[in-house]
Amino acid sequence: MTISSVDTAHRRLLILDDDDAVGQTIALIAESMGFTVRSFTSPIAFLSAVDEWHPTHIAIDLVMPEMDGVETMRLLAECGCQANIIITSGVGGKVLDSARRAAAAQGLRIVDVLSKPFSPATLRLLLSRQSIPIVAHASHTGHKSNPFEVTEQGLRNALAQRQFQLAYQPKISCASRALAGFEALVRWAPDPSTIIMPDRFIPMMESLGLIDALTEQVFEQALRWFVMNIPSPDITLSLNISAKSLIDVHVADRLFGLCDASGVNPARVILELTESSAMEDPVNSLALLTRLRMKGCHLSIDDFGTGFSSMVQLVRLPFSEIKVDKSFVAVCSTSSEARAVTKSTVELGKSLGLRVVAEGVEDLETLEYITSIGCDFAQGYFISKPLSAEAASDWTMLTQQSVT
């Protein structure tokens, strides 16, 4: 994603590298792009500057004598750093990939890894990108910039006032590049200037016993949009379901009641759950998921390969689709290990008669790679970012079921 012109005048790059010459090189390249730059060789001074200067971008070296980059990034995560981070190092690609995944899992915005030695062109490319924001605020229009506080009362009010909105991310066929489906993604919009992403409110809603009410609102809204805007019987709608909902024996009846009321064939609906979800109550979840499949709904195991139970779940539960986790797919173009994991997952899915979706497709090279290894579907920012209901409808008409 390219940074907008609104942000260009305010870009501040903070560099941490124990080699002052490398820091100066990065600084010169960034300054030629209009960045204001500060560079440090000391992690302590660097962390102090993060608090005082609030950089928009950070370039951080992994191997440091006083404090390594992994520990420094842990401290950045603890203080809620929202800068776009480029990880630099001369260590092997596998270590760089691991550091990237660890930092992203802690909630940091990781743009990419930059192996040393690097070319100026590569660094410029990374500095022209930004990661996907966790919380979006229209700060340049004067709206509040502090993170919105998530509270129990706020969530209860949000349900009562139906403040939850959906974004729809397209999924395409790898072979034909035609539109194959949409995934409905929930966001909380407590006021016109604030969008809160699900990782900030879903855990609290689960702990408060509010997740079923949210799920019902999401399903109602998504199915209504789907039947009104996507008439083609070949296009599917993916909906995420919480582990907490799998213990409710009536969830299947409610879901199919909603499908019936909206006129959506259950065969066009895909329910996505993470591989750890069904482990919370294996007996009830097995019965419930079996009922869902018997009624025609499809089941997808999301984030496949990120937990220890992947193979057990594939054998035990009636899945019809697996999604290769984006942490592997997103780095396929730079990591041979990630390509190997992605390829083996695709081959496993095909051998079990499952449809395979690669999420996190960020460039043409990755799309071409997953197509070459037989992946069925692709999803990611290269195809489209999540869209509003209106934009998703327009996108469908404009593409005419074709992505170039």
What does this structure look like?
This protein has helices at 5-8, 20-32, 43-53, 69-78, 93-105, 120-127, 152-160, 202-207, 211-229, 251-262, 282-294, 310-316, 326-329, 336-351, 364-372, 389-399, and strands at 12-16, 36-40, 57-61, 84-89, 109-115, 135-137, 164-173, 179-191, 194-196, 236-240, 269-274, 298-304, 321-324, 355-359, 377-379. With 404 residues, it is an alpha/beta fold. The protein folds into two domains: 5-134, Response regulator (Rossmann fold, 3-Layer(aba) Sandwich); 150-399, TIM Barrel, CATH 3.20.20. The strands form two sheets. The chain has an eight-stranded mixed beta barrel, surrounded by six helices. Strands 2-1-3-4-5 form a five-stranded parallel beta sheet, sandwiched between helices. A hairpin with a 2-residue loop joins strand 8 (179-191) and strand 9. Helix 9 (211-229) packs parallel to helix 10 (251-262). The chain is globular, with a radius of gyration of 22 Å.
